[in-house]
Amino acid sequence: MAAISNSIAFLGPLGTYTHEAALFFAERLGIEDPDLVACASFDEVFDCVDRGRTAYGVVGKENSLEGPVTATLDNFAFRSGAVILGEKVVDIHHCLVLHPDAQRADITTVASHPQGLAQCRRFLNENLPGVATIAVASTAESARIAAADPSVAGIANALAAQLHGAKVARTDIEDHLGNQTSFALIGRPGSAPQLTGPRTKTSLALFLQVDRAGSLSMILSEFSYAGINLSMIQSRPTKQQLGDYMFFLEFFGNVNDPAVTTCLNCLRMKLREVKVLGCYPVE
């Protein structure tokens, strides 16, 4: 069954930061009334795209505090044929959200996603000392729980509070300023370019022929010779045997640039596989 052209899968429920990124991509794509499909995991988002249930998907790539999203990397490397069509960096601003009639003194429990709790630990220790915390599936889910229970506070964004009927008691409660997450718009291979931007980024997955000394140095030297500055490098286990790794790399440049083409062709002669995950515009 062909995917509806305005359909976008994202990590639900409504009000997650992935939902926020999906709304951004819908606007950039010129989709006025997007069919947003909430998924329980990033694995499900990839499945929706790969199986044609949706035309697009939105997945988290990397957080400035927690690092790469490994579920996304593993899908790109081992499970999915989807490619990256665009990228959006979302500023992460956590809010303390409450039941509309609740006061701070009513709170006996704070609920949120584990990362939300971890990223607001200082605020909780200073403002809600001794209050129990519980982990839930998403920050948006914590807003839904808080909206229904005056004794529970959630840590979520303002969008989640609005959608689920909770009130925002405090804004910007995260411990670290500059907390950001990059999200990728994904689609099936061959999808026509839909977005434009001042710069182009390329994402790669590289698989070694054999694990031997100097393999990473050899890879990096090819980019150095071509004058390509890498913006990200991350190793992941191949899931074949202990100590067997592959690499993800990103850089600003287009696969059609002569220097990039030469670099990738040299790598293809030395590696088992050079998988281009996407060549896409960024802001």
TrEMBL record:
Q: Name one GO cellular component term.
A: cytoplasm
What processes does the entry annotate via GO biological process terms?
Answer: L-phenylalanine biosynthetic process
Q: Give the catalysed reaction(s), semicolon-separated.
A: prephenate + H(+) = 3-phenylpyruvate + CO2 + H2O
SUPFAM superfamilies in the record, alphabetically?
A: ACT-like, Periplasmic binding protein-like II
Q: Which UniProt keywords apply?
A: Amino-acid biosynthesis, Aromatic amino acid biosynthesis, Lyase, Phenylalanine biosynthesis
Originating species: Parvibacter caecicola
PROSITE patterns named among the record's database cross-references? ACT (PS51671), PREPHENATE_DEHYDR_3 (PS51171)
Q: Which InterPro entries match?
A: ACT-like_dom_sf (IPR045865), ACT_dom (IPR002912), Chor_mutase/pphenate_deHydtase (IPR008242), Preph_deHydtase (IPR001086)
Identify which top EC class this enzyme belongs to: lyase
Please state the Enzyme Commission number of this protein.
4.2.1.51
Location of the ACT domain: 204-281
Q: Where is this site: Essential for prephenate dehydratase activity?
A: 181
Q: Which GO terms describe its molecular function?
A: prephenate dehydratase activity
Q: Which residues form the Prephenate dehydratase domain?
A: 7-188
Asked whether the keyword Lyase is assigned, the reply is yes
Give, as in the UniProt entry, the pathway in which the protein acts. Amino-acid biosynthesis; L-phenylalanine biosynthesis; phenylpyruvate from prephenate: step 1/1
Q: Output this protein's name.
A: Prephenate dehydratase
